[in-house]
Amino acid sequence: MARPSLEIDARGYCRLTGTWTLGELARHLAQIRLQLQAVPAGSPWRLQEVERLDSFGAMLLWQRWGRRWPRELEISEELRGVLTAVAAHSGKPLPRPPLFTPLAALVLLGSLLFSFLHHARDLVTLLGQLTLDLLFLLRHPRQWPLKELSANVHKVGVKAMPVAALVGFLIGVVLSYLSAMQLEAFGVEAYLVDILGLGIIRELGPVLVAILVAGRSGSAMTAQLGVMRVTEEIDALATMGISRTIRLVLPKVLALTLVMPLLVLWTSAVALLGGMLSAKVQLGTSFAFFLEKLPQVVPMANLYIGLGKGAVFGLLIALVACHFGLRIRPNTESLASNTTASVVTAITTVILVDAMFAVALRNVGVPL
Amino acid sequence: MVKGLAPPVVELRGVVCQFGDNLVLDGVDLTVWADEIVALVGGSGSGKTTLLRHIIGLNRSAAGEIFLFGEPLWAGNYLDQQNRRRRFGVLFQQGALFSAFNVGDNIAFPLRELGVVRENEIRDLVAYKLAMVELEPEHALLMPAELSGGMVKRVALARALAMEPELLLLDEPTSGLDPDRSAAFVRLIRRLQRQLGISVVLVTHDVATLSSLAGRVAVLADRRIISAVSLEETRQLRHPFIERFFGPSAAMD
User: Where are the domains of chain A?
Assistant: First the structure.
């Protein structure tokens, strides 16, 4: 492998030597480009001493020559063949991707609206299909996917308990600590129980768990369905006459709907425990006082609202996750974008629905 | 290039590969010279693809040495190894096209990674490589998900050729293609090999591909390479695997 080089010889010929291949040229390309530019226009070229010329080297020369043969060229037949092949395809522009014009922006905006409508329609269709599946299963109890249901309950419920407890406990501690500092300033420490009880049971518990589960289980559901689609497992199920909604979607949706209230209960309890511990340390509130006052200041309705919200959030997260999972096409890009969309949509939907709950139930379960 | 002086393109000496308790390769020796087409054949699960992965440095052998272009595969620092890897191209069985890029960007990717080639030059080269594998410039904008099986193979071949390799490694180049397309793809590889003067190592178990492509056949059986001679000579050998593999066609001769 000799280094590629060029020089102007005594007769004014531009003489090329060495190996004119991409591997060799890449190392000295900046210098070679300068030398090529410096060759006077109309010079005769001499390529007979070039050891090897590949299509990159040929393209470099062809572009230097302005995409036409130089007037005088000494070259072996073999190298001429390489140059001819490259020359035949040079300068043919590759089609460019269409430019982004104002019209394209308008079309994009419109297509966003349509895609939102498509999503909404598909979600409703999925929900309807699941309802039909449930009716079918009520009439044919032997077809219940009980194993899948139990596996999903374990996966999305039991396995989520440690992380939910950790997050709940820490939030409880922080909330209690910060509130206690403010309440102390006004001398109304006794209201800490009200704040923690109402805040955690009615609002924070369900939303916290929903966000956690959307990130943890929602993404897993989307990715699982997506990969099953990529590897044609879903098609294999269909050919065996097994409904993908009954076997894959329904167990996920049912499991999450059933498990979420329990997770909410668990997380709220641990968060209250954290708050109680923090109150003891910060304000010296005894556990007995805290536990005695809690049922007095937090009406029972709040617990039902919290659990009900949990069930609705679970249903929404699983539906959104399965909806996006079934839309994945067999390539990595689609897998990534649909999983992201699944988590983002699930969390946004949960918060939107939570706001609706807050407005609709503003007169229920609030003391005064 | 003078053939006598150049070191072999690929040289394996006593390569051993073991996965847990499973000994896959036990002392494989193989030499591939410049401008040569060597086909690696063997039964399913005999370790053909594993051996190929060893040659391209995706797996590391438990014992033995691998030389590429006369240098040990794992010698030198990161940049040396990177330069060595840029001297060969690989066509994976499923194409392994980057699904986030369109066809043109897939072919341009290794050139862009090099960091010295300009955009207008890349466009020319991509158009040329597309023509080389008998595709149209319009195909540059397609995404890999939109391609048929035969086109995926062609684009992957164009990408493998983008860096002007001296050695091309093909893993089951004709799997998943119908006999007609498979024959066309084999003709394409043969033409490119002659035109570019590169060495080719291919893994296959398609006898039709073998007979039209391979200069030499390296037979992988009993965890080592039992012979590496021309197809006619291979058919004369007495070995249970060879007799089964070439059985019906050997009887026809």
Answer: 5-90, 118-360
